[in-house]
Amino acid sequence: MEIDTHCVRADEEGFKGQILDVMLKLGYYRTQHLMFTCIQTQADENSYVIPVFWLRTNVATINEHKQARSIRKKCAQFTVNIVPAVVTDEVEALYHLYRHHVPFNTSDTCTSYLHQPYLDNPFESYMVQVRDGALLIAAGFFDKGSRTIAGIMNMYHPNYQSFSLGKYLMLQKIDFARANGIAWYYTGYISTASTRFDYKTFPDIASVEVYLPVEKKWVPYRFMDKTHLHDYYMNYLV
């Protein structure tokens, strides 16, 4: 559930190309067929409200650390394909396993997470597929603009938890960005009141920027870490 949100509905052009670039730069993000922005969220239905701040990663400046290199090496045995996004029975089966493995509430199906019934997708969407032989063990969805990508969802087979497949999917999206001249990888939000979203600073926290909604600008996260963002939230957003 998103709190204090402002939503924008797509026109006939959708949220593609430079339109997506602009919306992401303004601190908006995708939910199903809309784009929204917020400064708070409720992580679970019965939980308290927590502050959030949007993040993006400068692809050109990423210097992958030891953990990233280790994950790449560990997952080198798997095959990776990036294809136009589509939700198949195989994807739904993986989502079902993942949904019952993660310790938080999420949509009942992958389709309902991504789409509204009977509406065309206004985004140019792709999916990273990771396979062990023929078995689909991880999938990650993202949207593409002209100079941006936005990570939407990652999921993995619980039996492969030790491979850090969520982070491996992030690395594959970064590889796609590098190969396609993408400048910015928008990863979603982080919270000053929870560690649940901290993985979004992976694989190089020095390349991460955070959006300041009052000034409407992006600044290096290393200058505005969680302590500073908490003070910013209390002083300017409450």
Automatic annotation (TrEMBL):
Q: Which domain of life is it from?
A: Bacteria
- The signal peptide, as residue positions, is none
**What Pfam families does this protein map onto?**
ATE_C
Write down the PROSITE patterns for this protein, in alphabetical order.
GNAT
Which residues are in the N-acetyltransferase domain? 80-238
Q: What is this protein called?
A: N-acetyltransferase domain-containing protein
